Amino acid sequence: MGKYGEDTKLIYELQDQGGELLALRYDLTVPFARYLAMNKITNMKRYHVAKVYRRDNPAMTRGRYREFYQCDFDIAGHFDPMIPDAECLKKVRLGGFLCLSVPQVNDRRILNGVFAVCGVPENKFVPACSTVDKLDKVPWDEVRSEMVGEKGLSPEAADRIGEYVQLHGGLELIERLLQDPKLSQNKLAKEGLGDMKLLFEYLTLFGITGKISFDLSLARGLDYYTGVIFEAVLLQQENEHVEEPVSVGSVAGGGRYDGLVGMFDPKGRKVPCVGVSIGIERIFSILEQRLEASEEKVRTTETQVLVASAQKKLLEERLKLISELWDAGIKAEMLYKKNPKLLNQLQYCEDTGIPLVAIVGEQELKDGVVKLRIVATREEVNVRRESLVEEIRIRTSQC
Amino acid sequence: MGKYGEDTKLIYELQDQGGELLALRYDLTVPFARYLAMNKITNMKRYHVAKVYRRDNPAMTRGRYREFYQCDFDIAGHFDPMIPDAECLKKVRLGGFLCLSVPQVNDRRILNGVFAVCGVPENKFVPACSTVDKLDKVPWDEVRSEMVGEKGLSPEAADRIGEYVQLHGGLELIERLLQDPKLSQNKLAKEGLGDMKLLFEYLTLFGITGKISFDLSLARGLDYYTGVIFEAVLLQQENEHVEEPVSVGSVAGGGRYDGLVGMFDPKGRKVPCVGVSIGIERIFSILEQRLEASEEKVRTTETQVLVASAQKKLLEERLKLISELWDAGIKAEMLYKKNPKLLNQLQYCEDTGIPLVAIVGEQELKDGVVKLRIVATREEVNVRRESLVEEIRIRTSQC
Fold it and tell me: What is the pLDDT of residue B95?
């Protein structure tokens, strides 16, 4: 509680159970910070895939649930500037599933510097920030009226903010803002822009600068960010197979939170952290829609081989063989029938994408061999029993 | 609710949140059954590793928490008898971490048959069952007095039960009970014993009969079991390094639950299921105690290679190289310092168990090579930049 700003209302509270007031975890970042503080850890890199809970309105088709998985990657510790930050952005680009989105990056210090030089009083930085954050969904005019109306900024301040927060670009924009007569006079903004320049230099070395946009409208809702912030939002999908463009919002985001661990430490000792959260269900919902559109068949198992029989009364031989394969670490399956038909066994492999079939037959048993069938090519080879594990390993690496 | 018998009191309830009464999941079995029923799935094999919650007294040192992971493996569908059941027992034996325990197996039908032929009225089967279940912790005398006192069985019935439930053995015991003049007259018991015989035949083919004990005192607490039940309990550890014997109770258990899916289906359609749950934290707590006792060093990362530098001012070169390695799918790390000392980088590998170091140096850069150091042997070889990924893959598979 008290770490999520406005979003605190989305926390699921548990009933008082024997004197303890508990709640369901809202994200993986605050628990990570608490873990570091409670265990006095000053240096850690970890990933964590686990469920989090939001008391929110679900939107199933867009992959927005009340109970969902996050995959977090965080680097905690005192390090030289922007090296771990660049790694987080590289990780967001890895995997390749975010090819539709251009990750945006900004820095809370730059944003606060913008507010300061535009004449916003410091106590209005947070509300101004959450209004700016809406610029990816609504046009500037609406954002401006919310600033002046609801948030009580002066029209002049709002106009000045508008000149900055509609900017986006790369290294050349950073250079230009470093020369900006007003912004360059602000200590916070200067620090933020200096680090942003360093970050873009590192991203160039990582080969991903062209794919990441420095965007001054990016604000991120949560209170705990202190430096670099970033977010990968899905753009509209240009795909002839899908009529409706997919819009699932942010699929990955994060930033630097140097103050959060200190809030949990009795002596306030700080551990600087930077990290990224990826929303797995949202990515799955896109992948699923794409797969449905493409009618591609997805392999639903990791099974390497089906242990099958060519004739009746071979259940015992199948059980013996599958046991040998399991003991050797081969991923093997069999149909749970006493006397399955060979055709049904082969069909099962077609349906599930199992690439190999080890067929036990009476003649083969006499000869000390197993017939290995490659499902894709229908090729069949007799393999000596003692070489079967090795043969399956080689064939699997080829599949 | 209403699926866990006496244990229902251990469920964590959520506060009513907007008109919905929710609870935290107690296990993975009931949700699996509900999932099958709601999605009309009649055939499925899956594993699931996830958290469950018990409003219970935690015992940290024994790996008993209120929030903990279970790893479940279940097979659902109409199949020929005992084939999936045998696979579940084989899976419990796999992995090798349960070498201290001898899995016990029994069948609810045999137990109910025993109660019937001993003169227990049917409405007292469930309480009698939960009393029998205590036989692994307390001697027969105490179990007997609970039966006669609390549960209201006649002393004669209790004595007759005692003759059966203290039996344990293998195939020969099953054969003997199949000839038992009373038990062989009971339909349920006969069915259960017939299936138990089949199960032991399959376990023989799987090569694990000698390692599994048919134990008539095994009852398992939960109401939903309908056939075979099994449990792996840790025996006392005979280890000179550890003074106190480890006792963490049951680490894996399960059984057949043919009625549970039907309870969730509006038309009561049944999907027979058999499955096993493994308590991961309990196994971890044993492994940790053993590791502490043995003072073995554990590798805490999967990192294949550390990207290091031999001189100062090589941060950019390190970033370039690590980016290449990441893009090729190599698990690589670097220290987040501009100018780390080579000795510190090598020490980091010693501490974390990273087996390889790719060292960037001025001369090597000129020559188009990277120095690859094998941490264990301190051997160093110059590898051409374009062959580095392949070389790391080969070396990793050898480590």
Answer: 45
- Of the residues B336, B352, B354, B360, the best mutation for testing chain A's interface (the one with the most A CB atoms within 10 Å of its CB) is B336
Cβ pair A320:B90 closer than 8 A: no
- Spell out the alpha helix ranges (H) of A305-372: 315-327, 342-352, 362-367
Are B327 and A207 within 8 A, CB to CB? yes
Predicted pLDDT at B56:
76
d(CA A131, CA A221): 9
Do A253 and A67 meet the contact criterion of CB atoms below 8 Å apart?
Answer: no
Chains A and B form CB pairs within 8 A to the count of 83
Cβ–Cβ below 8 Å for A15 and B17: no
Find the closest chain A residue to B55 by CA distance.
A17
Residue B115 confidence (pLDDT): 96
Which among B207, B320, B336 is the nearest to A83, CB-wise? B336
Query: Given CA atoms A188, A210, A143, A175 in this order, what sign does their dihedral have?
Result: positive
- Domains of chain B by start residue, with CATH: 5-294 (3.30.930.10), 305-398 (3.40.50.800)
Q: Is the pLDDT of residue A57 over 90?
A: no
Within 8 A of A83 by CB-CB distance, chain B residues are: 315, 319, 336-338
A44-53, strands of its sheet edge to edge = A44-53, A67-76, A273-279, A250-256, A228-233, A104-107, A213-215, A168-169
Distance between CA atoms of residues B38 and A368, nearest Å: 47
Q: Which residue has the tokens 């309908």?
A: B226
**Which residues in chain A have their CB less than 8 angstroms from residue B79's CB?**
336-337
Name the closest residue on chain B to residue A325, using Cα atoms.
B206
Query: For residue A240, what are the CA distances in angstroms to A43, A237, A244, A285, A287?
Result: 48, 9, 10, 18, 16
Q: What is the structure's pLDDT at B210?
A: 76
Confidence label for A98 from pLDDT (cuts 50, 70 and 90): very low
- Give the strand order in the sheet containing A332-333: A332-333, A305-309, A356-360, A369-374, A379-384
- Whole-Å CA distances, B12 to A55, A65, B170, B352: 17, 21, 40, 39
Distances (CA, A) of B113 to A235, B109, B141, B158, B218: 65, 6, 22, 14, 14
Q: What is the CA radius of gyration of chain B?
A: 28
Return the ∠ at Cα A143 (arms to A137 and A148), rounded to 5°: 165
Mutate which of B323, B348, B354 to test chain A, going by most A C-beta atoms within 10 A? B323
- pLDDT for A265-304, tens place per residue? 999 999 999 999 988 887 777 777 777 777 766 777 899 9
A357 band by pLDDT with thresholds 50, 70 and 90:
very high
B15, A13: Cβ pair inside 8 Å?
A: yes
Query: Which pTM does this prediction carry?
Result: 0.80
Interface contact B319-A75, CB threshold 8 A: no
* Helix, strand, coil share of chain A (percent; to 5): 45, 20, 35
Instruction: Quote the pLDDT of residue A243.
Output: 47
Closest chain A residue by Cα to residue B46: A301
Is the complex ipTM more than 0.85? no
B206 contact residues in A (CB cutoff 8 A): 319, 323
* Res B308: pLDDT: 98
Say whether B202 and A80 touch across the interface (CB within 8 A): no
Which of A49, A319, A331 is the mutation pick for testing B, counting most B CBs within 10 A? A319
B112 to chain A, closest Cα gap in Å: 27
Q: CA-CA distance, B192 to B183, in Å (whole number)? A: 11
Range with lowest mean pLDDT among A96-110, B161-175, B255-269: A96-110
Residue A157 identity (one-letter amino acid): A
What does the alpha-carbon distance between residue B227 and residue B192 come to, in Å, rounded to a whole number? 7
> What pLDDT sits at residue A95?
45
- B80 and A336 in contact by Cβ < 8 A? yes
